[in-house]
Amino acid sequence: MPTRSNRPLFVFEMANNHSGSLAHGLRIVKALREVSGDFPFSFAVKLQYRDLDTFIHPDFQSRFDLKFVKRFMETRLSWEDFKRLKDAIQDSGFLSMCTPFDEVSVDRVEEHGYDIIKVASCSCTDWPLLERIVKCDKPVIASTAGVPLPEIDKVVSFFRHRNRDISLMHCVGEYPTKDDNLSLARIFALKQRYPDLDIGYSTHEDPNNCEAVQLAIGMGASIFEKHVGVAAESISLNAYSANPQQVKKWLESAARAYCMCQSRANDADAERESKDLRSLQRGVFVRRDLPAGAKLQPDDIFFAMPNVDGQLVANDISKYTDFFLTEALGANQPVMLSAVRSGEKRERLYKIISEVKKLLKRSKVVVPGQLELEVSHHYGLGNFPQFGSVMITVVNREYCKKVIVLLPGQAHPEQHHKRKDETYHVLHGEILLVLDGKESVHKKNDVVIIPRGVRHKFSTQTGTVIEEVSSTHEGADSFYSDPTIQANEDRKTFVTYWMD
């Protein structure tokens, strides 16, 4: 598309401002070249083609009381003059663009060798015309004034399915457009709806309005169109066409907007800013003497400023990252990045959550999305595919309901409870359940009662979803047969926002 050079495209719409004179059209092109030459943008000059002998009904071609008939007929150019004007546009270093309003004009666009085809808002759903345009091997930009979103969807789909390059332009069909009717938020809405398309802004506001283009840039527009012309002794401009001086101010305003919006991620100023901000961040210090190899727990550390260069800071701490000391530290000492190794859990948790969601979908078990997900990794996240479970607590009062998920091939280690009774209702899959050493296989819809004090473990080859109904669950009421699990205080990770 026109922005493939990573430069925004500014389109100068000549429309009928050539006034039916090749010489005046050439004068406009020259003036545009003079005012646009110093800007780091891509530029196109756009003409409009109508085969007036067929576009206007024969009975109405002399009806100059109709303003559009009068305008089109009085500004008529021959096809030869249009071709000369188009060649002058390209010779001046501009891209050439044309809006054809009928099928004959599309033939002329191809014959004259234009770079880009523009579809006017009034033609956006003119399907006979679009059927002819889509046969052209040229990028297309379509204006969308007054076109409902479902209809725009159809147009986008039409061009995509035929492997044609299409961009969209937000436009308001009011000439000139009042400030309170510009609807610039529509640009952002189009960007969200069609994230893989270039979205532009075709303007009809007062030519002295230089703020709208800045807002459009902030909304993410990358193509901009403005009606332009040059006044002469017998030629005046309409209320929405900009003269060369106004065009220059418009471009200057756009350049300032890009300057304000540009990223500084790789600039020296941004690096210095980041360093200054880091000096205000709280450093990580140890509360007590800790040996090498110790895992930093929340009770082991505190945050305070100032920090020193190379120190771990509070911004580095996350429930998804574990830090282990590689050297012993004394009380109140800073934790240096060079003195820790880290273990990142985020990607592993994302993978686990993804697999759990897939299994829930296959099982057709509906779980409220706002509930917290408890990932039990009894022997560490690295061993979760073999040993572990995911639990979702629906309610925990005098009664408790949980949903337990085991992925295919997983096993839950042996444990027992001293206070609570449990009932398992198998909702999906199959489990091998071991109660006090006695094995039994249970399938979907089986119900099993596990009294308090009974040692139990279970595993699955298929993946399973179990509804657990019990008396109140208490965190200190789970006793594992393997003492290494009981001693592991970091065997659970809780994830709140997981369903979406």
Give descriptors for this structure.
single chain, 500 residues, alpha/beta, 8-stranded parallel β-barrel, 13 helices
What does this structure look like?
The protein is α/β, with parallel strands linked by helices and 500 residues long. Helices cover 28% and strands 26% of the residues. It has 13 helices and 24 strands. It has an eight-stranded parallel β-barrel with strand order 1-2-3-4-5-6-7-8, surrounded by six helices. β7, α9 and β8 (223-227) form a beta-alpha-beta unit. It is elongated, with a radius of gyration of 35 Å. The two termini are 33 Å apart.
- Proportion in β-strands: 25-35%
Mean pLDDT: 92
Oligomer: single chain
Radius of gyration: 35 Å
How would the global form be characterised? elongated
Please tally the helical runs, counting DSSP H or I stretches of 4 or more residues: 13
Largest sheet: 8 strands, parallel, barrel
How far apart the termini lie comes to 33 Å
Strand order of the largest sheet: 1-2-3-4-5-6-7-8
Q: Indicate the low-confidence ranges by residue numbers.
A: none
The class by helix and strand makeup works out as alpha/beta
Amount of helix: 25-40%
Strands, total number? 24
